Amino acid sequence: MLFVRHATTPGMRAARFPAEEDADAADLARAAALGPALAATVAWAWAAPARAARQTAAALGLDARIVPALAEADCGRWRGLPYERVAREEPDALASWLSDPHAAPHGGESRAALAIRVAAWLDSVREEPGGVVVCDAGAIRAALGHALGLDPPAAGRIDLAPLSTTELAVTREGWRVAHVNRKVLS
Q1: Cβ–Cβ contacts within 10 Å for residue 138, how many?
Q2: Are 63 and 45 in contact (CB under 8 A)?
Q3: d(CA 121, CA 117)
């Protein structure tokens, strides 16, 4: 299972909590350049419902099924806000969210709920080899956490660049990590 982090968005560059927005045109052009080679080897493709994920999948030439389970965690009232602003205005709430995977002080979804949702989906597609998933970092970190037995705070320390790939391979015992954050699109 090859995960591709979707193309950069204005919110990613501005260090804001995820919100619905378009992917950068330059990143989509880079994705389109890789698309033919990737699409030729893909048996299945899935994408998160976020516009940037759908646009990235399309740029890669993938006919991706949209999967709600691959969405980023709902950040509630923090959606689209700069991380710095939340840290300044709600430091205790942010500290709680970062340290407690079950906390959702923003009124949205906890990181634990995201991890459970992604793990359930990942295990449901174990028998579908050759798949590509286009989504954002939260879902990829949740998949890595599931594969490695990490809790959401530990998985949250994994760096994932836009348009990088992370690969998981299915085994009898679960999942094996083949590579993480491989920057194939630069």
Answers
A1: 24
A2: yes
A3: 6
pLDDT of residue 41: 76
Q: Is 42 helix (H, G, I), strand (E, B) or coil?
A: coil
Per residue in 60-117, pLDDT tens?
A: 999 999 999 999 999 999 999 999 999 999 999 999 999 999 999 999 999 999 999 9
65 bridge partner residues: 46
Read off the DSSP letter of residue 16. Answer: B
Kindly compute the dihedral angle of the four CA atoms of residues 145, 147, 149, 150, in this order, to the nearest 10 degrees.
Answer: -20
Rg (CA), the chain: 16
Give how far Cα 42 sits from Cα of 16, 31, 91, 131, Å.
32, 15, 44, 6
Closest CA to 179 of 171, 167, 170: 167
Query: CA–CA separation, 84 vs 29, rounded Å?
Result: 30
